[in-house]
Inverse folding.
């Protein structure tokens, strides 16, 4: 069970304790009020409102297209449905990179306007000044190293990072630097499982894996992938636990048929 058993909002103090659990904890990436309400009933301590909404919810090809204003809509929606899980707002591309001042301003907007409890920032040692400054202003930060979707052009696609000794050492040092800058947890994405295990063992903050093997303190996946809401694509790191897309299609076809046959609405559906 989660360390917070009274149904109160999960805090970063609670999240730090997840490092000591004898089993990995589960996180989910979600984007709307309805999903958040369902997640709220489960043993899931963290909801990440990911910039992957750019692709999953808005149909763009990469995460780099979504704006602050668009992300705020999704963060507000999830926050309204989450009474227990800790809501993390993913800071979108170019909402923080260009200056510390911009990073603090936009992180603050996610807390004040979006009602999130923390923000997530991609990057390693080069972003630590931003992380440290945001934390100093009282805003918790989740780090993110390894495969960085916002740097997809520089990393030449969505490829596993850290295969060479040099690259692995850089990711390890980036993780340590982000931790030292004040991050309360860190996402390890798209790296070899041995490297993820090494980082997890060295860090005192919880690691959250996605495409990084089974040795992280926690695992995160996208709500839509887990439930099979998209039959056209499934990332290699994901597992489909339900083909909900097919069930939705079947239900909607039944609705269409009943409307055509005039069996809906029936007497019990109107006065």
């Amino acid at each position: 069970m989660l360390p917070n058993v009274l149904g109160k909002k999960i805090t970063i103090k609670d999240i730090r304790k997840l490092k000591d659990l004898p089993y990995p904890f589960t996180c989910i990436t979600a984007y709307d009020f309805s999903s958040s309400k369902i997640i709220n009933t489960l043993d899931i301590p963290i909801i990440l409102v990911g910039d992957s909404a750019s692709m999953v919810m808005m149909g763009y090809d990469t995460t780099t297209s979504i704006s602050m204003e668009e992300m705020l809509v999704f963060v507000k929606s999830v926050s309204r449905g989450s009474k227990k899980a800790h809501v993390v707002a993913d800071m979108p591309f170019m909402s923080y990179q260009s200056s510390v001042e911009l990073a603090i301003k936009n992180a603050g907007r996610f807390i004040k306007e979006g009602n999130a409890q923390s923000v997530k920032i991609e990057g390693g040692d080069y972003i630590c000044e931003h992380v440290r400054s945001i934390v100093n202003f009282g805003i918790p930060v989740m780090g993110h190293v390894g495969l960085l979707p916002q740097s997809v052009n520089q990393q030449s696609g969505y490829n596993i990072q850290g295969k060479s000794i040099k690259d692995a050492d850089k990711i390890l040092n980036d993780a340590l630097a982000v931790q030292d800058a004040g991050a309360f947890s860190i996402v390890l994405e798209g790296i070899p499982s041995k490297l993820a295990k090494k980082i997890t063992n060295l860090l005192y903050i919880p690691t959250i894996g996605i495409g990084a093997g089974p040795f992280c303190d926690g695992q995160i996946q996208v709500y839509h992938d887990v439930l099979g809401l998209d039959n056209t694509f499934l990332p290699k790191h994901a597992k489909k636990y339900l083909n909900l897309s097919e069930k939705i299609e079947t239900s909607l076809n039944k609705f269409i048929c009943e409307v055509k046959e005039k069996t809906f609405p029936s007497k019990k559906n109107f006065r």
